[in-house]
Amino acid sequence: MQAKASDWQKVHGLLVEAAAWLREKGLRQWNPEYPSHRFAREVEAGSVWYWAGGGEVIATATLHELRPEYYPPGVWEDEIPAWYVCRFTVARRFAGQRVGEQVLERIEADAVGAGIRALRLDVTASNPFLEEYYLARGFQRHQTVEIFGEPSVMLEKPLDGKQ
Question: Residue 98's pLDDT is what?
Fold first, then answer.
C-alpha cells in the first residue's frame, strides 16, 4: 500500500527500529537513522510503500524510478526502466518468517507489470549477510563503490517479465 501523510510516522518507525538493531550488531548501515523530514518528503512524493498485517506495519520499501542522487557518477547512468529499492526493512518481530522474501516477490511482480526491467539497490559492504540475502534472491553484484564514505555493493536483479 502506498504510504500517505498520515502513515509516515508509523512507517518511519520501522526504519528507527532497524537502525537501532543494526547499531546493536555493530553495523554502520543506517547510522545515523534516516532523517524523518526526508522520509516525510518521500511519502509526500508517493515513493514509500508499506505492507501491513494484523493492523500493524510489517514492512516498508521506498521505490524510486530515478537513480538516487547519492550514487557516484558512472553507476547505472543508463536508460533501462528500473526501480531503485531503498530503505527496505521488515519489523524485527517478523524476522525469519519470510516476510522480506514475500515482499520482494510482490515488488518484483509489480515491477514486471509496470514494464520495469531491473530492480537495483545498494548494501553497505560491512553487512555481508545482507549482500548474501539479495544474491540468494536472484540479484547480481554490479560493482563496489563508496557512498557517503562507506564501501557499498551495488546489486541488480534483471527482470525479463516471465513471472
Answer: 93
Give the domain extent around 66: 5-115
Q: What is the pLDDT of residue 3?
A: 92
User: What's the total number of domains in the chain?
Assistant: 1
Residues in a beta bridge with 59: 51, 90
Burial 121-148 (b: 16+ CB within 10 A, else e): bbbbbebeebbebbeeeebeebeebebe
pLDDT at 29: 74
Predicted model pTM = 0.91
Q: What is the pLDDT of residue 163?
A: 44
Residues 118, 158 contacting (CB under 8 angstroms)? yes
Report how far apart, in Å, the C-alpha atoms of 148 and of each of 70, 72, 152 are.
8, 10, 9
Strand partners, 159: none
Are the C-beta atoms of 61 and 84 separated by less than 8 Å? no
Asked whether residue 150 is domain-assigned, the answer is: no
pLDDT at 60 over 90: yes
Cβ neighbourhood burial of 96 (10 Å; 0-12, 13-18, 19+): exposed
β-pairing, 118-124 with 82-90? parallel
Q: Give the CA-trace dihedral at 121, 13, 106, 112, to 10 degrees.
A: -40
